[in-house]
Fold:
Amino acid sequence: MINLDETEKIKNRDSGNMIGSLQALGKQLKVAWDESRKVEVPADYKNVQNIVVSGMGGSALGPHFVRSVFDISLPVQIVNDCVLPSFVGEKTLVVVSSYSGATEETINSLKDAKKKSAKIIGVTSGGTLKENLKQASLPYYQFDTEYNPSGQPRMGLGYSIGGVLGLFSMLGFAKFSDRQMEQALKHLEEIGESFDLETAKNENQAKKTALALVGRIPIITAGPFLAGNAHIFANQINENAKTFADYFLLSEMSHHLLEGIANPADLGEKISFVFLDTLLYEKNIGLRVNITKEILSKADIESISYKIKAENKVDAAFEALVFSSWTSFYLAAANEIDPSPIPNVDYFKEQLKKLA
Structure:
């Protein structure tokens, strides 16, 4: 297992420059926030009654984050499919989100949204999705991928989060100001330094957590406003560290999962719960975190906590995002794995094209 303080060895294994993408998250977020609010949309887009976001994989993670963290004035449903819900109609805003612009399910969702006369807007870097939107004279935010040198959609979350949040803000569905964004970016930059490659493992919580997860199955656990973060964290571990991981949310998991830890008998040798912990949770969630840890301890199941330092929910969510991103990267490094390639996902997509 590689020493996580051997920075040159880690860089040499990072063929896609994922480090560069990790360090540029704030720049992604800033440029997407600024640019997306300049997109011109028809006036009646502000009169919709609900929102559906269609996206797959990394392109859906940003919308999950936004829905969990921010107070959106309309119901928001995220669809990971090519068919939209039956309620979608002329009073629905459909956001089609695809980093590459080539995602089959999202392109088909666009067709379905047009059939259902929904209001449509896109978030993409280009590709077929952009061309289809342009041909239909539909609005879209097209971002430049300059600040994501890895080219991996899951590492371009700043574009997705900033783009979707900017559009919602511009339409009046989310209350978030430039001043608040500046504060979030400042905290993101400051906290990011504590996780950066040059920060030694004895002072780096992301490196410590990654080392504790080597050979384990991580179970990410969080409260409601960090639900999007928990989802992101599990996905990042899957794709970056090539490690099985899942996530559960409080308080729903308290009603079933705690009985599931009894078997198999050697479960404690295989899994570790990772808590995204913060004093910003509602009191009832904080109580559930503590009781859950107690039950896990009695079952000889390890629990790891990342204590979020931020003092407001938005900063806390961005802090958790930076922590999880670096942790998944370091877990790949500890496993001596190049984090960028996703051969199984690529193979799946290739076979799908052949059989479609």
The mean pLDDT is 96.
